[in-house]
């Protein structure tokens, strides 16, 4: 990863696998020597000390991998572009391109959370279910170390990009809303809920409380504001009179296109969406 690679090699770099290898080496060293540490060097206190010493390697190499990943993917610039989306002359990124970054960010955050939980479990006394006495400060230093701060930075990028992806795709679904033959609601309803469900499930998969809270809050905000406003706009564009007259207007020979344009059906679909 440190070599001067071309653009094609950069795109093929597997940062998640590189980071996973660091985690596996540390986990293997702890597991293979767990019995020796427990019986000959002081039990849980020795295991905690060994875990923290091994984690220093992750602070060095794991942080370097994450930093390299952020540089290769230009995550800081991408997040800044999204945050400045209201300014003039600012070209917004393609949501489809953002999604590819989201999947990679998700995997790295997920593996990092699993690794952190593994180390904290090793520092926990099985008899009491608590961090070993006298080692709480050491465990806290692990949580605030270089590697975990790097992961928190990635989580911030993930939250920003996930929110952008969610908002842009919901707006797109609203803008291309149309009646679907045989459906009780317009296309917007199914499309919006598909997008929000997809994003919510991905957010939960990050295994981060911070990601889950931010993601679900944004889902709730979209449903209670933009989506409800879009449905209200559909209702205001029609009336109950159009519902009554429109439903009786099409004849037996009317085409599906004319049915989709019937004002009564438009009003009924909007009302079903609410």
Number of strands: 2
- Alpha-carbon Rg, integer: 26 Å
Q: Which structural category fits the helices and strands?
A: mainly alpha
Strand order of the main beta sheet, please? 1-2
Averaging pLDDT over every residue, what do you get?
A: 78
Helix content: over 70%
Overall geometric form: elongated
Q: What series of H and E elements makes up the topology?
A: HHHHHEEHHHHHHH
Distance between the termini: 52 Å
- Low-confidence stretches are 1-10, 249-261
Layout: helices, strands, pairs:
Layout: H1 7-12, H2 15-40, H3 44-72, H4 75-83, H5 95-122, E1 124-125, E2 130-131, H6 136-143, H7 146-175, H8 187-205, H9 209-236, H10 240-248, H11 256-261, H12 263-273
Antiparallel strand pairs: 1-2
Describe this structure in words.
The protein is mainly alpha-helical and 274 residues long. 76% of the residues lie in helices and 1% in strands. It contains twelve helices and two strands, in the order αααααββααααααα. Strands 1-2 form a two-stranded antiparallel sheet. A hairpin with a 4-residue loop joins strand 1 and strand 2 (130-131). Helix 9 packs antiparallel against helix 12. The longest helix has 30 residues, at 146-175. The two termini are 52 Å apart. The relative contact order is 0.09. Mean pLDDT is 78; it is low at 1-10 and 249-261.
Task: Report a brief summary of the structure.
The protein has twelve helices and two strands.
Name a few traits of the molecule.
12 helices; 274 residues; two-stranded antiparallel sheet; 1% strand; mainly alpha; disordered N terminus
